[in-house]
Amino acid sequence: MYGMVNQALESLVTERFGADVWTTVRQKAGITDPAFITMKQYPDEVTYSLAGALSEHLQAPIPDLLRAFGVYWVAYAQRGPWGKIMLASGGSTYELLASLDAMHARIAISFPELKPPSFKVHRDGDAVVVDYHSHRPGLAPFVVGLIEGIGTLFGETVTVEQIASKDGGVPADSFRVWAKKAS
Amino acid sequence: MRDLIDELFPFQITIGAAGEIVSMGRSLRRVLPQAQGRPFLEVFKGVRPVLRSIADVEGAIGDVILLQVRDSPLQMRGQYVRTPDGQISFVGSPRVVGLASIEAWPVGLQDYAPHDASADCAMVLEAMSVQLKDLETMVGRLQYAERVERSLRERAEAANLAKSNFLANISHEIRTPMTAVLGFAELLRDPDLGRDERTDAVETIVRNGNHLMHILNDLLDLSKIEAGRMDIDRREFSLVRLLRDVRDLMEVNASARGNSLALRLDVHAAHDHLSGDSTKIRQVLLNLVGNAVKFTKGGSITIEAATEQRSDRVALRVAVKDTGKGIAPDQMGRLFEPFSQLDREFVREHGGTGLGLAISSRIAELLGGRIEVASTPGIGSTFTLHTVLDVARRSTAAGVSEGETSDRPLAGVRVLLVEDSIDSARLLSTMLVKAGASVETCGDGLAAVEAAQGPRRPDVILMDLQLPGIDGIEATRRIRAKGSTSRIVALTAAALGADRESARAAGCDGFALKPISRADLVQACRGKPLPGG
Ligand code: HEM
Q1: CA distance A77 to chain B (A)
Q2: Which of A3, A125, B137, B406 has the greatest number of C-beta atoms within 10 Å?
Q3: What are A19-45's pLDDT values in tens digits?
Q4: Measured from the CB, is residue A175 less than 6 Å from ligand 1?
């Protein structure tokens, strides 16, 4: 994945746990570069081993960390150069979810080798169902956090329920999402 | 057709024959809702080329055009074209400098036609600035790493230099007494040597041998401190007694050099019974008073002690004042460095290893305090030990080690001495017997394991660590495994910390270094800690 993802992880860890923890985690994951480059493509293993090392160091399960990382990512991306694009892609949780593919496509100008996930969204009563297609394994908890982060972005209360999992043999993870303007 | 143009060129402007704005694309209409029909040059200004009249517009057909909306930062880049119906149109879109410029302008990404790559240019520009930021971060971190590396290297180099200096000094300090020992020993070979000369030679050898021993002990202390291996004990003691001990011990030396030695106490009664490492405090004070005595002749030395309550602890200040020769200001800085002896000749005459103050000041730091110096050449010096101690729980001072008065401090104590060197065994057992102990000796570990459980169960086992067969550590382990509760004191000539650790782990209660004085031997047997750790 692009360096931006690893940078966000670094930013999360240093903000929450301090620079020393990041140094330890980085070393544990065998990373020697002094910094990640936003628009350089790194092997996915880099991100996965960082997550593994962090989980080991903090004694916290990887899914919990991924979910927290998802929430953090939205705030991080909003601060960053592409934040405008994200905000311009929708004015509510449902809208943004529906335009995620288009948004990643726009972003792909800066990230030519982007292998973004694909999100198919359809209405289901007062909820939406989001099918998350990705060739990367194990990131469903990350998506849960991302959707929660989007809710926070728009000041909405969001409930996410995973209703299907790739582990169960279906082609995509599916989530039912309820979003309500927080009063 | 109009709709098509609107869709493809949302920022187009068509200018009529009179120079008025005939039509504008959808995005411009949104930004400039009132511009339709107004003169083109009133609404827009030519940045490149400059436009004075509408004729200039015609002249610029085919060129790259930069237009600016008057009273707005919005700039547009494009070209003029002549339309089939003879009018002139501007075709282009807002010039992008980065995503930030889009933000500052009254147009959004959605205002651009999808085929227009200008918005993508904005992203590319933004990407460049991100790259630049990444580069700065990277350079910053590399510079930081380099600074860290350089300072580590400098520190390592300084340490290396200090070490070589230190080694050079040690060699020098050892060579001098060693030369005396060897020289006089050589002299003793001469069968014609007279009785007095012989006695004299032997005394010189003993004196220099002792001095070497002293240097060795100090070096060990220093390396122990430097390696972080010097432990701080905590024991209850009487401050007043400790101070009197120091005075009593030094009195003879002081008066031998015609000095008076006085002790002045400003110690609150409640601060007499303290808890802390009295052995180390004593070692420091003996060193400070010893120095004062050495550098003062026919003068006076005063030990002034004062205590002060510091929340629930007690701050102790002991000043050792002398009327000696004093220390020159430029020499003060090096005072606490090893081998900084200010006056080598003088010191040689009076002994001292050049390590005393270095050790004392480091011990003071270990005790959470420091040593301060004030001196005026020709008038005298004051060395002050500052430290902070706890008040002892019980008000009756316990464990205050007094000078052993009894001649037979080990009367009735059964000692098993495990020692393979016959000479050493003889020496130790003589000292033990003189102190009143009954001694059984054995020369190897297996015999020791057996004797430890014999009918005469020893109270104390003195265990040499270097033994033939199973060594002292293993022997101790086996003795302990069989449930022995005797006090076991490890004896060794090698003063390595590792020995001490493994002895303790194997079950030794005490540890003593050979050669050992009678007093230390007695203390080791009785279970009181040895001075100096
Ligand atoms: C400005 C906002 C965003 C930017 C710049 C961005 C950029 C990226 C980048 C660079 C990757 C790595 C993919 C690769 O390197 O091949 C990625 C992956 C991903 N993005 Fe985004 N993203 C943004 C917002 C979001 C949002 C709001 C979601 C919400 C669901 C999302 C969901 C994901 C997921 C799930 C992945 C993991 C890749 C996978 O599943 O295969 N992104 N994104």
Answers
A1: 13
A2: A3
A3: 999 999 999 999 999 999 999 999 999
A4: no
